[in-house]
Amino acid sequence: MTEKQLKILNRNVMIELIGDEPEMIRQFEIDFLKQAKVSLRNIVTMYNDSRILEIKEEAHFLKTSAKAVGAEQTSYLLQALEQSGLEQDKAKCKDLILRVKEALQRVHGVIVNDKTISPSMP
């Protein structure tokens, strides 16, 4: 599957994991966004400090959470970032970091624009 064929946020993933619990799913999504903000900041710092190999670990950590909440495009890009970190390809890492940031912004948009549950984003 290509990145474009993947969903920004596939809520069926969480429904399969925990059941049809909209409020609980919403909380997991919000927690994911908070975690993603910290992880992305860490990845950028590692990149700026030329600690490219370390990006692999942080990308892997965030990828696991992205998969769990159904952030398919983000997970796909994090997999590629993880590989680029392993290969220590700084130029590719830079491109993927920017693409991960954009993907996370799309996930954020889907979550905050969901009118089925009132947003409680900080």
Automatic annotation (TrEMBL):
Keyword Zinc: no
Matches recorded under SUPFAM superfamilies: Histidine-containing phosphotransfer domain, HPT domain (SSF47226)
Entry GO MF terms: protein kinase activity
Transmembrane feature ranges: none
InterPro entries, sorted: HPT_dom_sf (IPR036641), Sig_transdc_His_kin_Hpt_dom (IPR008207)
Residue ranges of domain HPt in the record: 32-107
Source taxon at top rank: Bacteria
GO biological process: phosphorelay signal transduction system
Pfam families noted in UniProt: Hpt
UniProt keyword list: Two-component regulatory system
Identification of the protein by name: Hpt protein
